[in-house]
């Protein structure tokens, strides 16, 4: 069923009796060409691009719970491509371009809103670093705009520009950045994948991999064995747990990242703003809540909740630049489990086991990467070659010394 | 989280900084035959378990001791706190 304005009007006039479930609930077949483990944003995007762009028909997505119930439903919905390094920036810019055409591609309203993102500058050294980053972005075809304090004051008059310790001295803006309705991304990809013949199998937990003579033949699941020509794992947050079933140790630690949302307010915040002196970022959802977050808690965790010291730190950051936020009441706070890789950058690659492919290590930046991650992983699964924008995301880069370390802090996941 | 420091008693976790898996105590032998591969494992690969995890915490805003904390990564419950120096000595290290 195609969605359109005409369709909405027709259904409104006929009592909304024509809407049907938008994906099937199939029994797993005994064998697929490609099985994707993980029905989150990245897994569903992979399935969509496999079916639509790479002509793969016999594809299944296997999900332990319900689709979109993991990190794609627990993030702060920001999209951007403001990276510095050559290994990252072309990939994230490719992702932003896919976001720009996503709704037409999926025929689904994902509420992609390019309201802009502004990284605030608080010192001369930071200005130099951000100018360098902005130039790297422009060189890779992205947009970047160095804003003066005056321009920022005009656009965001509520910001505290004259904080005694961290005065705002400008900002690096990416006007094409913004936010997307996160759940709709999972649902839109699922609907499209299903309509192209992908089986989405929910409530089906992978309990093991069947590996014979170094070749992965399929997955053991709570609903029986499912054979596969290729198995792709896209379960960021739980990658360590899943791949331990194949006796693999990964360059990844799982960490918890908290996020917060206030009560619904009238429109006050026209974009995404990040604090450059601490770690705090904030945007306003279309429902009116101010959505914000900050640093990782900083210790290994699979609990989808964090602790109070980080809450305090985030709120201090908020009060430093957005004092008006102090008047709002926090409605909800939650934690998501991140695959923190050893250099802060993701992995899309084969493993040493033939037929077993890995997509993970997305740190706290997986949401914005969803379309490109799905596209690049589908490219790898379908053609067995790396997508041109994702050639640096090799699993063996740590052994070979080709780290992609945006912050330059080394193999310390809680500092990325 | 409250970390029950073996010398100072219960302290808030915000006084500490976190390094990672306690296996980082066992630095490989740099003169060993497989040193390059051993150091890759040591520096980059982690067990990353969901459940009990032995990990290194540094009492930065306290007595600056290194601790080995046994903590559940699913519930954040802490079952055991030891001085890292005691753990290292028990493993045969001289200091």
UniProtKB/TrEMBL annotation, chain A:
Location relative to the cell: Cytoplasm
Signal peptide: none
Name of a matching Pfam family: DAO
Necessary cofactors: FMN; FAD
Enzyme class, first EC level, given as a word: oxidoreductase
NCBIfam families: soxB
Protein name: Sarcosine oxidase subunit beta
Annotated source species: Neptunicoccus cionae
Organism classification: Bacteria, Pseudomonadati, Pseudomonadota, Alphaproteobacteria, Rhodobacterales
UniProtKB/TrEMBL annotation, chain B:
Domain of life: Bacteria
GO biological process, one term: tetrahydrofolate metabolic process
InterPro entries with a match to the protein in the record: SoxD (IPR006279), SoxD_sf (IPR038561)
An example molecular function term from Gene Ontology annotations: sarcosine oxidase activity
Database matches in Gene3D superfamilies: Folate-binding superfamily (3.30.2270.10)
Pfam families: SoxD (PF04267)
Protein name: Sarcosine oxidase subunit delta
Organism: Neptunicoccus cionae
